[in-house]
Amino acid sequence: MKFETAAVHAGEEPAFSEGASGDVVIPIHLSSTFARVDVAKPTGGYEYSRSSNPTRLALEQKLAAIEGARFGLAFSSGLAAETTVALSLLKKDEHVVAFDDLYGGTRRLFTRVFQENYGIDFSYVDARDAENVKSALRKDTRFVWLESPTNPLIRLCDIREIAGIAHDAGALVIVDNTFASPYFQHPLALGADIVVHSTTKYINGHSDSVGGAVMLSEEDLYQRIRYNQNAAGGILSPFDSFLVARGIKTLALRMERHQKNALTLAKYFEGHEKISAVYYPGLRTHPQYALAKKQMDGFSGMISFEVKGEGKAALRFLRSLSLFALAESLGGVESLIEHPASMTHASIPKHEREKVGVTDSLIRVSVGIENVKDLVDDLEQAFEEI
Ligand SMILES: Cc1ncc(COP(=O)(O)O)c(C=O)c1O
């Protein structure tokens, strides 16, 4: 089944059995528990909604299908998904190699929870060069954690090359595929073992649900993570499962439009006299344009850029916009803009984020699906204010 077809149909085949109503859309099964015919006979395999729920199961099948995985699991947030993966794989005092440009909340989870409380050792490296990953690997490295493109600097890493290096050293590879979405990038096909998503972003796509997902094909790993989905309990609710399943049906259409608008804006930023740098993998000037063409099917809708001058000019620009909402998050139909240093990445100490390149003049844009002319007009009037 092709992507667009799976996005509409997977997990939602109408049921025609006796008593079934033939819904073409998965119903929202709100029941927290399921009655049994007898003590040892759960009805249809369902016992209690934390362990399994028909609406969540439909979404999980759809998530697996769009990521080209055998298994999908839905969580109450992207970070709940990440936490459950990490606690399923790590033992006290083990080691992890991670890209040094990561979503701030992921870095906070790793440092403040897994490192400080459980003694996990993290090495953050610039994974744009796979050799840096290679030199950081140790005998006790359990996994390599990647984002590509990264949040917020839109950097890429060669997933296939790093997977080869990590596997040779006995480490797993986990890719946060949130920025590309399953429409534009397939990390499992490139050799990754596990994909995680914040479904809050492109996958749901309408900024009305917080959720997370894990997709993978290896049965043993799946059983461990599924066990902890129930044991730790970070599940997605039936209502949110319905919303995310509905969002996925238009993912392909939305991603095409996000990308089209983003390319127009990236070119506009590139030619702007008040901007010193633009980061978008669909620009030929992006240092990793060739890698983007090789490993992605498109460039997605996230752009970062640096405003010339002190960080104050960036803040003045942000305050002058009216159509772009000044908000964290990304991947919704509406355009959002933010200041990573004081918003999404504020939890990272200043010297750490500046070392990576998250400066006070950096601005991150999640390009929506509006008419791009209205977006340019709003940006233009805000640039006039600085
Ligand atoms: C790349 C990336 N991964 C993970 C997350 C965490 O997801 P959530 O906010 O759904 O917990 C985010 C949130 O912004 C993100 O941008």
From TrEMBL:
The keyword Cell cycle does not apply. GO terms for biological process: cysteine biosynthetic process via cystathionine; transsulfuration. Its cofactor is pyridoxal 5'-phosphate. GO terms for molecular function: cystathionine gamma-lyase activity; pyridoxal phosphate binding. Its EC number is 4.4.1.1. GO terms for cellular component: cytoplasm. The keyword Lyase applies. Transmembrane segments: none annotated. It is an enzyme of class 4 (lyase). It holds the Pfam family Cys_Met_Meta_PP. Keywords: Lyase, Pyridoxal phosphate. Belongs to the trans-sulfuration enzymes family. This is Cystathionine gamma-lyase. It comes from Methanoregula boonei (strain DSM 21154 / JCM 14090 / 6A8).
